[in-house]
Amino acid sequence: MSTYASTQIWLWLIFKFMFLVVVTFQSQLSTNHPISLIYSTTKDIRNFTFTKSRDKPKTSVLIRNYTFISAIDFHYAKKKMCWSDQELSSIYCCDYDGNVADNKKKIIGDISSPDGLAIDWFTNNIYWTDSDFNQIVVATIEGKHRKVLFWTDIDQPRAIAVVPMKGLLFWTDWGEVPKIERAGMNGDPNTRRVIVSEHIYWPNSITVDYEAEKIYWLDGKLLFIKVMDYDGKHLHTILDSKGLSYPYALSQISTKLFWTDWKTSAINFYDFDTKHQPTELCIATQVIDVKVYSKERQILKPHACEINNGGCSHLCLLAPEPPLYSCACPIGIKLVDNKTCADGPKEVLLLARKTDIYIIYLDSPDYSVKPIPLNNVVYSIAVDFDPIEKYIYWSDDEVRKIQKATLDGKDQQDVIMAEIRDPDGIALDWIGRNIYWADTGTDRIEVARLTGGYRKVIIGDGLIDPRGIAVAPELGWLFWSDWNEKDTKVERSNLDGSERIQIVRHNLGWPNGITLDIPNRKIYWCDAKKDRIEFSNMDGEDRKELINENVLHPFGFSLMGTYLYWTDWQRRTIDRAHKETGDNRELIVDQMENVMGLKAVRLERPTGWNLCKENNGNCSQLCLYRNNKTRLCACQIDFELARDKQRCLKADAFLLFTMKDKIGRVSIMNEPIENNFHIPNIKHASSIDFDSNSLRIYWSDSRLRAIMRAYMNGSEPQKVIDLGLASPEGIAVDWLGLNIYWTDPISHRIEVARLAGTSRKTLLWDGTYEPRSIVLDPVSGYMYWSEWGQSNSIKKAAMNGSRQRKLISTNGKAFGLTLDYDKKRLYWAENMENKSAIWSADLDGNDKKTIAREGVYNPTGLALYKEHIYWTSGNQLYRALKYDGSALTRVMSLSENPTDLIMYQSAKQNQTNQCAISNGGCSHLCLALPSENPEESTKYTCACPTHYVLQNNECIPPSNFMIYSLKNVAVRLVPDISDCPEAVLSVQGLKAVRSIDYDPKNNVMYWIDGKVHAIKSSNIGSQLVNLVVPSSNDIRPFDIAIDAIGRLLFWTCAVQNIINVTRLDNSNPFGNLKAKDGEHPRLIVIHVTKRLLFYTDVGDTPQLIRTRLDGSHRIIITKASDITALAVDTENDSIVWSQGQSIYISNIDGENKHVLVNESKSKITQLTVHLGWLYWVDKDLNQLQRLELTTGKSRTTLPIQVSHVVDLISVKKPQNHSCYDQVKCSHFCLLNGTYPHCACPHGKMLQEDKGSCQTIPNCGPERFTCTAVSSESRDCIPISWRCDRQNDCSDGSDEWDCPSCQAHQFRCQDGHCIDKSYVCNNVDDCVDRSDEKNCCENGFQCPHTEVCLPSTSICDGNEDCADGSDERECQSQSSHVEIWKGLVFLIIGFLAFMLLICMLFILRKKCLHREDVVEQPEDSLSPLDPNGHNKNLKLRKGIPDVVRMSMLNDSRPSTYDRRHITGASSSSNTNGSSSGCYPRETLNPPPSPATTAASTRASSPSRYRPYRHYRSINQPPPPTPNSTDVCDESDYNYPLSRRYEGSFPPPPTPRSHYHQESCPPSPSSRSSTYFSPLPPPPSPVAGPRGDSDS
């Protein structure tokens, strides 16, 4: 056939085809009336009208700017249109007349995932499906009276349709068991039944032909549209897969069907009367739902709810059976009779879920869950309810508050917002109007009014991790649990904290929640470690186990009526069971993560009474009922109870006392009551003072060896000074200079610091003996203190320690010093063997007289207030006139013997001096000084911390000093100055110190922690401890040394026996020095300026060795086995070491060695050289001694306690060095003479830039690796060149550390020497076997290198000898070999080519030779066409058009494989043959196309997100738009798509089922990877908080 004829035939065929298309299109659109459609995309709702015209339909955008519109419907008579938005979790409606949509508003919110939507135009109700909660729900079209109709046996509901004239409701379910169900519109479970359950997979949509009483529905997986009657019978197919790509939404009118296609993103049309092929009408962007907007779709007929809403008070719902309707009530409300609903819910559960508070309605069987709209809920833990005012209370561990609000979320208020840390449990006394809470952070139980006022600590000691708490207001009892395993218990007390007892102590794990059965006097608790629920009488008797099955991790716990309710962390459930038998167990909520506290509530007003109910028991603040049917009026911490025991008054003065492990106050102006501050962890409080400026108290704890402080209510206790205190005794607060003074009788010192503990300075240390009690007069600039022991006196000095003088000699031990600031007199008490008295004198020590002897027996405290003096003898508190001791009165009996007593009076601290204003302008300490004469005002001086020098009002730190360390403290030592020679360094975290060093550049101390075998560091004054070298089994640091110039830390390891090097900033790995066989490095010091390293070797040959910092140029200084200490004199270039009972010295080359000190009885443990002096610690003499190093003279002993010193170092100010600025080295900087050069650690070599190090290449056992590389030399040289007395490496490293062999010896390649008779004796005498390597008995030996080759290497075509001598006489043989080689390669090549041809032929026949082929779908995920361009490829029939992401990524089985659930055989294949070249389809992908861009946004924290369906883990990707929307006439600029590139089902929800912060699926046992049975505190450790603080 000619080309012209062929062309004519093709043109005729094309014309014929187009003509048929036009005719078909016109015939399918033939109708007497236009058809109006409304359809939705994910973002908007649009409409268009079809007529007979072939013109492009005009599209209008009705609604825009939404996120994921999943369904639409309309109410034709009311001119309403409604739609659901899954991302916004709401349903919206607007007015719509067929042309214009306006007045849009949200009618229903807080829907987890609204999917399908249907309007009942008879009763004006709206029905929808919720695919998250798996519910069918109804409400009025105004959004009122929301009710759940069906909630059981629903997996993933989607489409929904109503038939109001029959009272029927239809919905589809694409879950694990796909189906279509029918039920009455009233939710009657008796009318519910499945009408389709076979040959169904993804029933995406359903629509009703009301006239013909038929149901049309489609399947997006099996690709068909079918029709059936209302009973599911007479089922037949309208369209099959030939006309469908991925149908999603369906609508019908007359004989015409319209549907959306998720894959093609188009609206399609089909007339099953004409039965022409389906037509694509319109293509939009991510088109979702479609509805035919016509009056014919909503014909009105008379119905049972038409008149007066059927007589129903709320909802009138149509039904399929007589009386054809039923009345219904909103969620959580019962139907009182057949018509009327109750006035509200009666029984509910209140649930704390971290970021939300939920209400669960118990009145209706669906147990509907509703979030309470609240703000700023971050980590809610506990919840309770006030049945009187109807407020819900909850605690939040993250925002650290207790808040309240009404049940509808209104009137949200803060109740407790200060000094609260982890309020794990709360309980309301609704009768007394008080709230109690247990705080795991402060280890206290507190009470306050429900309004938040009048707060008081009830229980403040003996608690570790209190959690559950419950109140029995009618009984006056308070119960709580403590889950800490050190002291697990359940306790009880009166509501005022009195009569505290432990009722359950043994066989407890983690008692998380407690609840009370008050009528039956029972207490219940849930144990999350023992996995059980128990109960007993309220005294702990008759203990019984109630439930021990399937209680995996109970937390929240409550009781109401006859049922117990609890939350389970692990199962993510809320359960209930009968309180007496544990039977009738029921699951209230399933798969809800983050279930915390729980409260079961009856909303009716309760009945109950106690003495606090009426008028708050006549108490002005707190009324606390007690079990003995009495009440106690109590006051908050800064108030006192008046003598009428009802009113609370503000006190101007009161007594503060210490009692070993207690601190408290006693009222002196009102009813004398002892109140403890409930401060935890007090071991032995010795002395106390206060600061009225900050309302803090300060005390010394002699057992903790610390000075502490806390607020007056006992909150926020913290250490002020905790380092270097031997036994802190007396303390005094300078309330004007804001300093604190203290005495230490063991170290014989008086010190001062800022109130926060900074700027510590020793004021008195020489000539002070056992200072005890101390008192200050900052107005006059004096301090007074008592001394015991050989001094027995009272002394006086200026507040900077100057002008010290003895004021009074005492007969016994003076203590309790106190000042009468008005009368200018000093009072104190003295204890003698049989006599005790209270004395007084003026402030110069004159006019001494006895004030009181009667009632004074071993007094322990003394205080003044106005005209009276107060003291304690034993546990009795006395008062008398301060002038002569008359009017003696016993005030009260205290609970214990106090250790100190002081009067708190804010008026005392109202005076002033120059330090009270801006700290006197001082940068650190402002210390008051007395004036020279009475007419002058008090002076002051600026002072610095010990060893700091004041220059221009700035404190300059010392640059040269020594540091010695004890096990837990480090002390700076600066001898020969006017200041105290010792100053404790503020370095936290020192424990079991073994060795120390100091970085003077950054003021960082490094030390070895001998307990954990790690190296740590800390900046001076910082609270942060850094881990430099972590501990491990193969690391045991022995000694450390710092190279301040190179910023390196050297440390020896007693396990690996090497010297390691770490960068001071620990930024990246460094390396180590090459270890020499048999060496065990231990002690180590560095000559920083000379770049030399000295270390002791305790290996095979104990010795002292010197090397460069990189370990090269090794020199033995001396050989000795008993070296105990090392030190370097960098000024005189000498090395000093202790050996035996002597100290030796030599120069750094090991020359001029001689004895410096020789003692017959000494044990020298530490050495250092500092400013020309040698210092050493002699443990036998317990002395720190020194002498001039150059002369060996001027030997002296320093008055320093050294019995526990573990290390001693010298610190010098860093000086300029050539390694700082002349050369930049990546690792080591060394000196060749005075010229710096770079070097590398072991395993690295220097690069050509002479500054950087690189990893040494693996030269193999036959090569030696040079430590430096250059362009002129190789980095690998033959091993035989090693130690051959020629420098073959550029740095000569091949000749380093080479032993010299004698004439009769053979030198092994590693440098060792053996006798020549051992060479070639078939025995490996060299470690490297080099003595047997060149023994050529049956081989060929290369003439120049002496390398021995096997006979097979001769004439093999390869030159194995360096000179090629093994191949010299092989030419003729070689030519034959080459010919044979060529033939062999030719034959092999031909065979390989033929094999390839055969394989290609078989593969083609297998993959492509089929009779039935289908066109490759335009699938962006296709493994054949990832970009969707290969349109001409043919696929074998049976290959699935859905290609999962999991297929392309790996070969693991899909999480959603239906066989995993149904038990289908792994070899079964429902999709055709399993053979072929393409991946098989996963059997059960989720019917969701994945999340769109909008769905990837974080969901609202207040929105409930239950545990998602397991099949949605591998959701497919979203549609990928790539073309123009042919229907778009709007001003939208979406990235539009003609084809969705991928055959994935449309979404049930815009969110991935796992797009949330939730737990993984609950495991079935504790061995699950999800659940770890660690202590279960819900209190978060830090923000943001986790589920556990363990």
Automatic annotation (TrEMBL):
Q: Would the keyword Zinc turn up in this protein's UniProt record? A: no
GO CC, alphabetical:
membrane
Q: What are its GO biological-process terms?
A: endocytosis
List where in the cell it is found: Membrane
Q: Which UniProt keywords apply?
A: Disulfide bond, EGF-like domain, Endocytosis, Glycoprotein, Membrane, Receptor, Repeat, Signal, Transmembrane, Transmembrane helix
List, alphabetically, the InterPro entries matched: 6-blade_b-propeller_TolB-like, Cueball_EGF_LRP_Nidogen, EGF, Growth_fac_rcpt_cys_sf, LDL_receptor-like_sf, LDLR_class-A_CS, LDLR_classB_rpt, LDrepeatLR_classA_rpt
Extent of Low complexity compositional bias: 1462-1476, 1490-1504
What membrane topology is given?
Single-pass membrane protein
Q: What residue spans carry the region label Disordered? A: 1416-1436, 1449-1590
Describe the location of the EGF-like domain by residue ranges: 304-342, 611-649, 914-956, 1218-1254
Q: Which Gene3D superfamilies match?
A: Low-density Lipoprotein Receptor, TolB, C-terminal domain
Protein name, per record: EGF-like domain-containing protein
| Biological source species | Rhynchophorus ferrugineus (Red palm weevil)
